## 1
Amino acid sequence: MQQLTGVDATFLYVESPTTFGHVSSLIILDPRDGPVPGFDEIKALYQDRLHLLTPFRRRLVRVPFDLDHPYWVEDPDLDLDFHIRDTAVAPPGDDRQVAELVARLIARPLDRSRPLWELYLIHGLEGGRLGLLTKVHHAAIDGIGGAKLLASLLDLAPDADPPEPEALPDPETVPGEPAMLARGVWSLATRPYRSGRFLLKTAGELPQIGQALDVPGRLGRAASSMPQGMLRALGQGERRAEDDPDALDAASTTGGIRAPHTRFNGAIGPHRRFAFTSLPLSEVKAVKQALGVTVNDVVLGMCAGALRRYLDERGELPETSLRCAIPVSVRDPDEANTFGNKVSVMMASLATDVADPVERLRLIGEDTRHAKETFDALPADLLTDVADFAPPAITARASRVLMRTIANTTTPPFNLMVSNVPGPQFPLYLAGTEMRHYFPVSAVTDTQALNITIQSYNGSCDFGMVACRDAVPDLWDLSDLLATALDELKDAAGIS
C-alpha cells in the first residue's frame, strides 16, 4: 500500500457534483494505408504493458472519517473490459462532433471503487481515423506522470518490438475499515510531532520566502502610503478615486494578488465544452526568432491575443490585464520514474490590456521571467508541505466549501490556467498506427471556468480548450481565434 500525499488527495477532496478531479487527453490515430486497431488489439496492448502502468492497476482505500489521506492498493479484481470502452460519432465525424462527445464523456466522474481511469475508443472519424480519449484522476498523476504513462504505450516505429514482459505485483488484500481506522488513529496521534517538524522547517525557510516575495519592499511601500490612505478612509480629507476598490484592483501589477473579473471566474456547472485546434510549430518558432522571445512566450501571446479579441467582441474586455496560472513541475531528477503529483504554479500577466501584439508579447516575456525568478527562489516543496500539514478531515470538507465560497464572493488571483507542454518532434505509434495529434483535455473548477493546455508534437502545437458549458458556450469561437492571433504576430514580425 502507498499513501497519497496531501497534494494528491486534494484532487479528490475538491470533487463535487460540478467539479471533477480527472484530466484527459484525446489522441488521434491515422492508419494511412491500413486499418485502425480495434478493441481487442488495444486491450491486448494494455494487458501486455500493464506492468509499466502502475496507476492503472491501483484503486483507492479510504480511511474512515477522513482521519488520514487515502491509500493506493494493487487492485485484486482489475477488469480491463470495464475500463476500456467502444464508442463512436456518426460518420464521417468532424472535429466538432468529436469535441461534443468528449465534452460529455469528461463530465462524468470516475468510479472510486475501481482504479481511477477510463479509455474510450472513438470510431467514425473522418478519413478512417481513430480517437482515443483517456481519463485519469489527477490524484494519481501530474503532467510528467501522464507523459510517462503515454510513453509506456507508444513506440518509435510501427513494427517496434514490445518491451520485455514482466510479472505484475501480487494483488493486495484490501484492508477492511477496522484496519484503516487504526491507521487513521495512529496518524492523529503522531500529527503533533509532524506538525512541529513542519513549523520548524517553515521557520527556517521564512527568510528565503520573504525575499522571494519581496515582503520588505511591499511592507515599505504600504507603510509609506498608509497615513494618507488611513486618514481618507476615516473621513479625514477628500476621498480620492484611487481609494475605490476597483481602482485598487486596476493598479495591481506583477506583484498584485487579484485579477479582473471575467465570465471565466464564477461558480461552474456540471457540463463542459471542449474545442481543439492544431497550428504549425514552425510558424511559432519563426515568430520566436523574429521577435527574440521564447516559444512559451509566443504560445502565451497567442492565448492572450485570442482572449483579448474574444472578450472585446463581446464588450467584456477588462481595462486591466488578465492573469494566468502556469503549472510548473517540482519533480527531482531521482523522481523521474514515479507517479503522483510534484507540481506547483506560478502566475503571470497576459497583457490583454495592450493593443499592440509586439508590445503585448514583450510584456508577457518580462512578466513570465519575473514570475519564474520568484518561483525559483521559493522552496520547491513548499506547496507539498503545506498540503500535508493540514488535517485531512478538515481539508476534505474545507476544500469544497472554500472553492465555492471564493467563486461567489471574490475575484481569484488569476483568470485561467494555461499550460504549455513540450513534446517529441518525431512520429510515435500506438498498436502499430501513427499518432497524428495529442490534444490535452484538462479540468476546470469553481473560479476557473476555462483551461487552455498546449502539447507540441511532431511539428504541431496541439491546443485543447476545456470550459464550463454555461460560462463559455461558444468555445469554438475562442479556439478559432488562436490562428488569428498567430497571424497577427506573424504580420507584426514581418513573416509572410
## 2
Amino acid sequence: MHHLSYLEACVIGFLQGMSELFPVSSLGHSVLVPAVIGGQWATDLNVAAPESPYLAFIVGTHVATATALLIFYCRDWYRLIAGFFTSFRHRGITNPDERLIWQLIVGTIPVGLVGLLFEHWLRTELGRPVPAACFLVVNGLILLGIEAWAAGRPVAAPAPVVSDDPDANAIVADTRLSRMSFGKALAIGSVQVFALAPGISRSGISTAAGMRAGLRREDAVRFSFLLATPVIMAAGVLKLPDLFGPLGDGIRGQVLVGSILAGVGGYVSVRWLTRWVHTNTLRPFGVYCVAAGLFCLVLFAVRG
C-alpha cells in the first residue's frame, strides 16, 4: 500500500517549488528533509527506493515548477519560440531572439542526453541522505567560490533599466545574452549535468558557470532559468506515465495538492530571485548550503 500524507505533500511540495529555483537544490532538499525528520517521513519519502510513490509525486511537482517558469517568462518564450520558427524561414540567424533560442537548444542537449541515460542510476546510487548532504556542501562552496572570484574582478555596472516596461528590459537582457558565443552557451548548459546529483543546484551551478563566462550575475540567473524551463518540463513529462500508472495509485490527490503548492512556490521564488540578484550576491545561499549540509552530516553520524 502506498503512503503519502497530505501534510507530507504540502510541506515537500512547497519546499520543492521554492528550492527548485533558488540555488540550493530541490532534489537535495527532497532527499534530506524527510531523512532529518525521520520516522514515517523517511519511509514514505525515499527517492532511492524502488517503485517509490515519491517518484510520482516529484514528477507532478517538477511539471508544476516548470509551468510556473513558463508563466513568469511567457512573453519571453513567445518571442523565443517565434524566433525558432523564423530562423527556419530565414534559413539562418538574423536577430537576437533567433540566436538566443538556438543557444538555449545547444545548452540543453548535454543534460538531456545524460539524464535519459543515467537518471535511474544517479537517483538510486546518489539519492540517499549522506551523498545528498555532501553534494549540498559542495554546492555551497561553488556559490561562495564564484562570488569570491567575482569580488576580485572589476565591478560591472548593474544592468541598466531602459524602461518602466519589463518587456522592454527583458528584450535588452536577451540581446546581451545573445552576444555570447555558442561555445559558452554549450559550456554553461553542460554544467547542468552535475545537478542530476541530489544536492547540486541546477540554477546555482549554471549561474556560477555563466558568471565565470563573463555574464553579469542577473544575466547569468536569467539564462539559467531559461535553460532550466525545458529541462524541468521534459523531465516531468517523460515521467508522467509513472504518475498515471501503478506508482500514482492512491496518491493522486496528494500529488495535485503538492503540485499546486510547488507551482506557487516556484513562481514566488523566481519573481523574488530575479529582483534580488540585481543588488545582492549569492553568498547567503552558499553559506546556507554549507551549514545545512554539515548539519545533516553531523546529525546522520550521531544517529548512526
